[in-house]
Write a structure and sequence with these properties.
Length: 487
């Protein structure tokens, strides 16, 4: 099916209807001549949206918010947030709109959300616009994360607006269409709690339970069970980030989702040379969101969620505090379980290889990687070759050869499973130098580098001929690397 009338598309507005206090009805800025830059056709089909129609005039206008189905109610969402540790009571969608919700082919409710669609009442002095480069960055990074099997919001399309956006220079503007299981955040609960309306807070929690964690409704204490479900989801998510060397860069509470999906690909990056203190965000001058700090920050953010839920957990606040603290203490163990299991899989030692020996190997590995700034992704992928007997490529990543030789010898003695390693250690990630190359070219009107990068990173575990450059570390001339939020 290549075409579909707008009337065939149903956008529901359950969030806006159930939680009107957390949103403002709003319309996107008019776009005179929208032009499709990239469309995620498999995702479109999954959502029941015909790719051919989306590429046409009506579909493209839908994707910039200028044409919405009858009955749809676009809104800008309200939320608070701790940004770099400082609380802002009123953030919200300053340049974004929730168009509505669709039920996909699997029966899942998912948000259609625009980014860069114009100023809203939450803009706080911003222009409400987005440039082509940052929107394509989110498209590439989110689709790469999805291909890696990590929970994430996804990108349906990036549409050029034909409008210039003023940043350090004038840049071509664009709108991103983001897909998420919802846009509920820790910051949503902070906003509801700050209103002083216990009924609103309860309705928000009930909405979150229905949408993301329905098992909590059957628990003896549903709101404590909701909190525990979010703790588990975030522990698993951040452990997966750490295993692939992903640095989010802006782990504010308004970017911590209730669903456990990764959201907001602004100042983010993947590790090149391994460095626990790696920071890629231009605004993270103190290193709050450095690679090694991500688990600690996630736990801190969850503590802020716990504070909002206290009135629902128990009428006795001392009892409520005790209960949420007990639940929050579970984060470290859950994170550690996923992290250690993931590392064992990456090392090909997921079976019964002796916990003490594996723990010792893991403890010794990361100081080795850090000492020689070894490329994180290359190391784990080439380790699969070492498991097959070809240790040369891994040795070539290090300067301290006696140390790595001793480590590899003891590791190989445990009989790592090379084929299993290849299934969890990617060949291709959105390497920072390639992302910048693709975004610069696309901003100048050349889509080819972006197309090639997407081909590689959306099938990351299968090595393919002709894609060698996508598996290679950044050249020595690249860096230090800094990313920006795009506003």
């Amino acid at each position: 099916m290549s075409t579909a009338p707008l009337s065939a598309i149903t956008l529901e507005s359950r969030f806006a209807q159930e939680l009107g206090e957390l949103s403002v009805p709003w319309q996107a800025d008019d776009v005179a001549d929208p032009r499709m830059l990239v469309l995620n056709e498999p995702l479109a089909a999954e959502l029941g949206l015909a790719p051919g129609w989306l590429r046409g005039e009506e579909g493209t206008r839908l994707l910039v918010g200028n044409l919405v189905p009858e009955g749809a109610r676009p809104v800008a969402q309200a939320y608070s947030g701790h940004q770099f540790g400082s609380f802002s009571p009123r953030l919200g969608d300053g340049r974004a709109l929730l168009l509505g919700e669709v039920v996909d082919a699997g029966g899942r409710r998912r948000d259609l959300h625009l980014k860069g669609s114009g100023r809203t009442p939450f803009a706080r002095g911003g222009d409400g616009l987005a440039a082509v480069g940052p929107m394509l960055r989110e498209y590439v990074l989110s689709e790469a994360m999805h291909a890696l099997g990590i929970p994430t919001t996804r990108s349906l399309a990036v549409v050029a607006t034909g409008r210039q956006v003023r940043r350090e220079t004038l840049l071509p503007g664009a709108v991103l269409t983001r897909v998420a299981s919802s846009h509920l955040r820790v910051g949503s609960f902070q906003y509801a709690r700050a209103t002083g309306d216990p009924g609103l807070l309860r309705r928000l929690a009930d909405h979150a339970i229905r949408r993301h964690h329905p098992h909590a409704a059957r628990a003896e204490n549903p709101y404590l069970a909701l909190f525990e479900a979010v703790v588990t989801a975030q522990a698993e998510l951040v452990a997966q980030w750490m295993l692939v060397g992903f640095v989010h860069g802006v782990m504010n509470t308004d970017n911590t989702t209730i669903s456990g999906e990764t959201i907001d690909y602004g100042p983010c990056a993947f590790l090149d040379g391994f460095d626990p203190a790696a920071v890629y965000s231009s605004i993270d001058v103190g290193g709050r969101y450095a690679y090694r700090n991500q688990p600690v920050v996630a736990e801190w953010n969850l503590a802020r969620l716990a504070e909002t839920l206290l009135p629902l957990v128990h009428e006795d606040q001392d009892r409520a505090v005790e209960q949420v603290q007990t639940s929050l203490r579970g984060f470290a163990g859950q994170y550690s379980t996923v992290w250690k299991a993931g590392l064992r899989a990456k090392l090909g030692l997921a079976g019964d290889h002796g916990d003490d020996l594996v723990e010792q190997l893991i403890d010794e590995l990361f100081p080795l990687l850090a000492a020689d700034r070894v490329d994180h992704t290359s190391f784990f992928r080439l380790l699969g070759r070492a498991a097959r007997g070809d240790t040369g490529p891994v040795r070539g990543l290090f300067l301290d050869l006696p140390a790595v030789d001793a480590w590899v010898e003891r590791w190989r003695a445990l009989g790592p499973e090379a084929a299993a390693m290849d299934r969890v250690n990617p060949v291709y990630i959105p390497r920072n130098h390639l992302v910048e190359e693709a975004l610069e070219a696309a901003t100048a009107g050349d889509p080819e580098p972006l197309t090639g990068l997407l081909e590689a990173v959306t099938d990351p575990y299968v090595e393919r001929p002709g894609l060698d450059r996508y598996a290679e570390p950044a050249p020595d001339t690249f860096g230090p690397y800094t990313t920006y939020c795009g506003t």
